[in-house]
Design goal:
There is one protein chain. The protein is of the alpha+beta class. 26% of the residues lie in helices and 42% in strands. The chain has two helices and five strands; from the N terminus they run E-H-E-E-H-E-E. A five-stranded mixed beta sheet has the order 4-1-3-2-5. Strand 2 and strand 3 form a beta hairpin. It is globular. The termini are far apart.
Length: 91
């Protein structure tokens, strides 16, 4: 079952390779959505895929050297049937 979730992540998440790891993990797990740095120091992501793959992706990101997620705000979102890729967005 495909789900979509919006994440706001705080901690040591900017300048530590977070977006690169997210892009790599999403590509390897077949997850679509986006990741971007926010001006307030957090990272924003929307992930679409099956629940297990999303959990595995978050674990892969968190395992990164220098990355430390202190707080994660999660909100369920409607699935985007037309989305086909995972992208790094820039503000």
């Amino acid at each position: 079952m495909v789900i979509r979730r919006h994440y706001l992540i705080s901690g040591d998440v900017q300048g530590v390779g977070f977006r690169y790891r997210a892009k790599y993990a999403a590509s390897s797990l077949g997850i679509t959505g986006y990741v971007m740095n926010r001006y307030d120091g957090r990272v924003e992501m929307e992930l679409q895929g099956d629940r297990d793959s999303i959990s595995r992706m978050l674990a892969q990101i968190d395992a990164g050297t220098f990355i430390h997620m202190d707080d994660i705000e999660v909100k369920d979102m409607p699935v985007d049937e037309n989305e086909r890729a995972f992208v790094v967005r820039h503000q």
